[in-house]
Amino acid sequence: MSYPFSEFNTHRMYSNFGVNSMKVVHTPNYAVVGKNPTDTFETKDKVSFTGKTKRNVLFATGGALAIGSVAFLLNRRMTLEKAQKIFQKTFMNNDITLEDTSKIIAEFKKISNLDDTTDYIKALFDSAKKHYGLNHLDIDLSIEYLDVGKFGAMDAGNTLHVSRTAKRKKIVEIIFHEFRHAKQNDIMANKDLDRYVKGILSRGTTDEVLEESVLYKTLMEKLAGKNGLSEEKLKEHVLVYLKDRMLLSSRAKFESMGFGSGNLPKIENLDEYTEKLFNAHSNYSDGNIFAYFFNFLEKDAREAASGICAVFRNLGKL
Ligand SMILES: [Zn+2]
Predict the structure, then answer these.
(1) 121 CA to middle of ligand 1, Å?
(2) Average pLDDT in the 42-56 region?
(3) 69 contacts: CB under 8 Å, gap ≥ 6
(4) CA 300–ligand 1 middle distance (angstroms)
């Protein structure tokens, strides 16, 4: 089976994000390929301007860009206004002006021209983090040699793993996709951190799972027969205690990574959007490919990444 996004497996880690006591459902298989991998996969990335419009050449050579000039056209199909809409929508900031747009495009262009894949990934990472307005979050980057078909994922420790063996299109896609998830999480955390953490804890943290924990067993043993509580009542109390404890520790972990300290995005229908996030968040399915694929969080992240990919494509660089 092939999925449009190889994060299918690794992405599950993200859904367990921030919860110490949870298992990582899937461990990505990191394979180191080649002694000098740049020889094997970078050749294809070197983009020429053959067959592209002259306007692309303008982009390639022009440093400073002036608003109103035809040079602003990314190509025949994408205008600066279109790019602005994409940026406003993707980065969830209606304040992005045409001038900002041209700056972002110039930045993307510069990144596209980086020959070294490590530099390229680092620059995209910084760019995505900045434009999504997530500089307050503690997110690490790990550049790795993933198996063919695996492009990367954000793991439970808030590290973004990116494959340097992937094609550039996939690299752009995975970075802007995963950062969109980080943005979704940030919005929910800023809106209501407890509700956000509870949403995560409700997945997979059934009473049965908790009853298997060492702490549960220890507490049940220690408290048995005390305070005249029946076993049933004691069990109830211990479970409530464990859930509160998990909530507190998860909350603290999220806070330590910067969640809840950012600003809410400047978009229309923010409340409606946030509600959709929360719903999708609590219904997020680990086990079902369809539920996963059509979950709003995924749809939303795919759309975001494809918008950015379209911009890069129009720069003649994907
Ligand atoms: Zn995703």
Answers:
(1) 18
(2) 26
(3) none
(4) 9
Task: Locate the domains of the chain by residue range.
Answer: 8-184+298-314, 186-294
Distance 65 CA to ligand 1 centre (A): 34
In which residue are the tokens 């950015």 written? 308
Buried/exposed code over 269-281 (b: 16+ C-beta within 10 A; e: otherwise):
eeeebbebbbebb
CA of 175 to the centre of ligand 1 (A): 10
What is the Å distance from ligand 1's center to 3 Cα?
12
Task: Report how far ligand 1's centroid is from the alpha carbon of 265 (Å).
Answer: 20
Nearest Cα neighbor of 122 from 140, 98, 147, 99 is 140
- Residue 60: the pLDDT is 27
Whole-angstrom Cα distance, residue 36 to residue 26? 28
What's the one-letter identity of residue 92? M
Q: Is the pLDDT of residue 155 over 50?
A: yes
E strand map for the chain? 140-144, 152-154, 159-163
Does residue 98 have a pLDDT over 90?
yes
Q: How many angstroms is it from 21 CA to the middle of ligand 1?
A: 22
pLDDT in tens, 2-40: 233 334 333 333 333 332 222 222 233 322 222 223 222
Distances (CA, A) of 90 to 122, 281, 318: 20, 19, 19
CB 128 within 8 A of CB 139: no
How far apart are alpha carbons 183 and 287 in whole angstroms?
A: 24
* Token pair listed for 271: 């409340």
Rg (CA), the chain: 23
Say how many Å lie between the CA of residue 301 and the centre of ligand 1.
6
C-alpha 172 to ligand 1 mean position (Å): 14
Nearest to 160 by CA among 10, 311, 33: 10
